[in-house]
Amino acid sequence: MGISKLGYVGLNTTDVEAWTTLFDRTLGVKSATVEFGTEEVVLAALDDVEYRLALYRSTEDSPRHIGWVVDTAPELDRLTRRLTDAGFAVEEGTAEEARLRGATRLRWFTDPVGYRVEIVLGQARTHPRPVRPADATPGVTGLGHLVLASPKLDELRDLYESVLEFKLTDYRAPGLFFFRCNTTHHSIALASAETTSIHHLEIEHGSLDDVGRAFDRAQANDVPISISLGRHMNDRAVSFYVRNPSGFHLEIGWGGIEVGDDWVAHDFGTSDVWGHRHTDANPFASPTRP
Prior knowledge:
Layout: E1 3-13, H1 16-27, E2 31-36, E3 39-44, E4 53-57, E5 62-70, H2 73-85, E6 91-92, H3 95-101, E7 105-110, E8 116-121, E9 140-150, H4 153-163, E10 167-172, E11 176-180, E12 188-192, E13 197-205, H5 208-220, E14 225-232, E15 238-243, E16 249-254, E17 266-267, E18 272-275
Parallel strand pairs: 1-4, 5-8, 9-12, 10-17, 13-16
Antiparallel strand pairs: 1-5, 2-3, 3-4, 6-7, 7-8, 9-13, 10-11, 11-12, 14-15, 14-18, 15-16
Protein name: VOC family protein
InterPro entries: Fosfomycin_Res_Enzymes, Glyas_Bleomycin-R_OHBP_Dase, Glyas_Fos-R_dOase_dom, VOC_core, Xdiol_ring_cleave_dOase_1/2
GO molecular function: dioxygenase activity; ferrous iron binding
């Protein structure tokens, strides 16, 4: 069993208001502010769990935590043992942290690039589906995947593939790899890069028309579109990307394929079936090791 899905991402950000405006004007997603200790945290609820994206006011823009979900307490304990055996120090999260995430239990460790990675037991369904624009059918449906780029590609691959038991779905040699923890084509991709960063987060939509309407809203509200509308070769998703206030991309997507245990990992070669023109140089055009 192991990890069942990507649960949430927390970000330190210097401009929370710009983030909430981006979510409102592009996705039709409203945000809520809650108290967390001495901090105020802005939560974007993309579906019926507490949140998928948490924004913490900060003097820097950086990832604060990445949260993965397990479905049973024995699996949480088993993965804790695997992490400990691999040399990672696993800590218990506080009750307040678990409550904020809508989880029953929370444990965390620091990954090879210094990011806090959390594993939580469950995520409570806390409210009905958030309000969407009138033309949403059904609009945003959740958080899809993240892409993490780093010079420590080998260490990250060992963590996710060997320790956390993600399965390799496909790759582009020599430095871009896609991994799954359920039937979705990928929940994380790992890439070789000179510096560590989140390259993008993907926001799932319920229909192709919803992606098109989000594209229209982004253009109408002068949101910086960093990668044009297109279809990926490997997961077949149709999407476009916007540059968010923290400097990386948000992918607005629909239609990614699902794969089963009989899937054979392979080099998928060309990055896109069509589209996905980059406004800046594409770091994954010819992925290479630094």
